[in-house]
């Protein structure tokens, strides 16, 4: 075949869309056909001819596509409009042979018979429809409505009975019940409800709470209160504890509330709240709270609030079992309003959530659950369980990695309260043997001190200092114990051992305590020796000031001269100190001393030694070495330093001479600048 070769395949300059084509056709009205001319029929022959033509048209349409039911319905309705009922029936029957499942076809057929008052024909059609399509509820509704409109109550009831055999949906049962109630047949309606509930219970067609509630409200509406209560009780028994629904119990409680049975209402609410999962009982909580506010006392309202808070805490601990703060709040609530068994159960649930990591920071909150549990058992229950709680806690803690001294001490104190001193000592001894800690030693020593067992205290202090020789507080307490017992030599020996340790955590506190001890014993020579020994180790300004104040407080004639001599030595020693603020502090202390006890000459001398305070600037550098600007700071210039350095003035004059030399050299290198300056 010949094919046309398209040379230019580029798109046309003007593009025409389908929308433009449709718009142009609409504007030109190309699709509109002129209306057919009106035809007036004047005699029978013309009418028959018109009928023949119309029937031929309908038959042609049906012949073209028999499955289009709308053509059949139009054909039948046209025959019906001509009062040709037999022809219309014939058309409907032919259509049903084509598609008997078409619901609209059956409805139009039956409506035609009812419109033309052909009741028996209509019944026949409805019977055929519900027999052929029993699951189409519309047929049943139309059929029962027709019979009821005709006053055939028995026939309508019979149709309903046939319908119920098919176990229809919920609305069908309620339609049947409402039908009986319209004719005041309460007993029949109750029977239908019973059948409906029986279907629910046995066949499980509609196992829904609302059906039982509707039945009970039906009985309540017709003043059969005993029957209504029995329905509610049967519903509770039917659903059991596995399928409990809060709506059933709310409806039951409201029914009893209307009957003024307030105790029964309270029992129903509590029964439901104890068994329904908390997340599904929000509406139940709300209605119970409203009921207690209306009819209950203060205790009842508090019970509701406690129950709601218990639900909240249960949700929190369920979401995160290791949220120990939530457990604490929950236990505090339960302890305030619950029996011992319930509290014990919650405690057991809480302590079962052991931290997954054996690190002390994860156990710090958890261990207080055990402590509170033990205290609760001791205060509220028997002591035997308290001992078991302490022992279980001690066995649970991984003592090789860490321990909690408070647990051991609380256990020992509990045994003492039970008058079991050997067990308390054994517990503390075991703790020191397994996992020695400062707190354990201190607690054990304090216990023996209260019992006035001083020999045991000495042994414990010796063990303590073997374990932690750097602990200055332990040395001080040991020495204070010996001082209290009157053994001064042992106390002094302990202090000597302490200051001889190579490593101490607070040496200044230890030295101060030793010095205060010697001052209390009025051993001033020993005190001076201690100060001298201390100054060999440190030249701190506070040591010098304390030494001077000690000499001043010695209360002897030469105390002033000794004090002034100490200040002189301190000033000489502090000249090489880089911290000028400490030197200023020393001079100020010396000046205060001279102002109170010195002469005019000594006052004038100390005034000459006071430094001059000047402001200076220094460059700052950032961490990366770049310039970070300048900062101002205060510095001190001491007269003694300037007097001992006579070359400072010479150095300043040399710097000035160098600056003048640089300016003269710059002027020689740029003579034009001098000419311009002279001309100007």
TrEMBL record:
Coiled-coil residue windows: 517-583
Subcellular location: Nucleus speckle
One Pfam family it belongs to: HAT_Syf1_CNRKL1_C
Transmembrane segments: none
Organism the protein comes from: Colius striatus
Disordered, as annotated region: 661-680
Compositional bias of kind Acidic residues: 665-680
Main location: nucleus
Listed name of the protein: Crooked neck-like protein 1
Key words of the record: Coiled coil, mRNA processing, mRNA splicing, Nucleus, Phosphoprotein, Repeat, Spliceosome
Keyword Metal-binding: no
Record function comment: Involved in pre-mRNA splicing process. As a component of the minor spliceosome, involved in the splicing of U12-type introns in pre-mRNAs.
């Amino acid at each position: 075949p010949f094919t046309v070769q398209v040379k230019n395949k580029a798109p046309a300059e003007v593009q025409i869309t389908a929308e433009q084509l449709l718009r142009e056709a609409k504007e030109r009205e190309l699709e509109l056909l002129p209306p057919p001319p009106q035809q007036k029929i004047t005699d029978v022959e013309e009418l028959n001819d018109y009928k023949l033509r119309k029937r031929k048209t309908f038959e042609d349409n049906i012949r073209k596509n028999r499955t289009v039911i709308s053509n059949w319905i139009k054909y039948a309705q046209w025959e019906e409009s001509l009062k040709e009922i037999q022809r219309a029936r014939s058309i409907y029957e032919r259509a049903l042979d084509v598609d008997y499942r078409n619901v609209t076809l059956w409805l139009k057929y039956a409506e035609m018979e009812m419109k033309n008052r052909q009741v028996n024909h209509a019944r026949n059609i409805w019977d055929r429809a519900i027999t052929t399509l029993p699951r189409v509820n519309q047929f049943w509704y139309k059929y029962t409505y027709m019979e009821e409109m005709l006053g055939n109550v028995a026939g309508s009831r019979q149709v309903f009975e046939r319908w119920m055999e098919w176990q229809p949906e919920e609305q069908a049962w309620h339609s049947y019940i409402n039908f009986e109630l319209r004719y005041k047949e309460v007993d029949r309606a109750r029977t239908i409800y019973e059948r409906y509930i029986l279907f629910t219970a046995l066949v499980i067609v509609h196992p829904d709470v609302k059906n039982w509630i509707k039945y009970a409200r039906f009985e309540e509406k017709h003043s059969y209160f005993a029957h209504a209560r029995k329905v509610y009780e049967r519903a509770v028994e039917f659903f059991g504890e596995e399928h409990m629904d809060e709506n059933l119990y709310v409806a039951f409680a409201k029914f009893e509330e209307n009957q003024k049975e307030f105790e029964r209402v309270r029992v129903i609410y509590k029964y439901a709240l104890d068994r329904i999962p908390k997340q599904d009982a929000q509406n139940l909580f709300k209605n119970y709270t409203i009921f207690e506010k209306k009819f209950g006392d203060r205790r009842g309202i508090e019970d509701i609030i406690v129950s709601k808070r218990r639900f909240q805490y249960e949700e929190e601990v369920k979401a995160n079992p290791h949220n120990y703060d939530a457990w604490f709040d929950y236990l505090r609530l339960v302890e305030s309003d619950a029996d011992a068994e319930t509290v014990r159960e919650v405690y057991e649930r809480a302590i079962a959530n052991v931290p997954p990591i054996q690190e002390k920071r994860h156990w710090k909150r958890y261990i207080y659950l055990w402590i509170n549990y033990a205290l609760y058992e001791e205060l509220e229950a028997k002591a035997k369980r308290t001992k078991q709680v302490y022992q279980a806690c001690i066995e649970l803690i991984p003592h090789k990695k860490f321990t909690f001294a408070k647990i051991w001490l609380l256990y020992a104190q509990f045994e003492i309260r039970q008058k079991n001193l050997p067990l308390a000592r054994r517990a503390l001894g075991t703790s020191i043997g397994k996992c020695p800690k400062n707190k354990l030693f201190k607690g054990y020593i304090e216990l023996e001190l209260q019992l006035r067992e001083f020999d045991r205290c000495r042994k414990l202090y010796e063990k303590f200092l073997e374990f932690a020789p750097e602990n200055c507080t332990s040395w001080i307490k040991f020495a204070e114990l010996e001082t209290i017992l009157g053994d001064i030599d042992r106390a002094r020996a302990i202090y000597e051992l302490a200051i001889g340790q190579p490593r101490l955590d607070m040496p200044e506190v230890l030295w101060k305590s030793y010095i205060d001890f010697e001052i209390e014993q009025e051993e001033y020579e020993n005190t001076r020796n201690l100060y001298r020994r201390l100054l060999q180790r440190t030249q701190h300004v506070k040591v010098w000031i304390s030494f001077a104040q000690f000499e001043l407080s010695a209360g002897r004639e030469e105390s002033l001269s000794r004090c002034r001599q100490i200040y002189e030595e301190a000033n000489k020693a502090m000249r090489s100190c880089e911290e000028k603020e400490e030197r200023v502090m020393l001079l100020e202390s010396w000046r205060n001393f001279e102002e109170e006890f010195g002469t005019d000459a000594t006052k004038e001398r100390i005034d000459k030694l006071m430094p001059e305070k000047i402001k200076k600037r220094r460059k700052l550098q950032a961490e990366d070495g770049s310039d970070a600007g300048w900062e101002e700071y205060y510095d001190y210039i001491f007269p003694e330093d300037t007097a001992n350095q006579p070359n400072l003035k010479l150095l300043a004059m040399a710097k000035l001479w160098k600056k003048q030399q640089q300016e003269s050299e710059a002027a020689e290198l740029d003579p034009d600048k001098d000419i311009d300056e002279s001309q100007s």
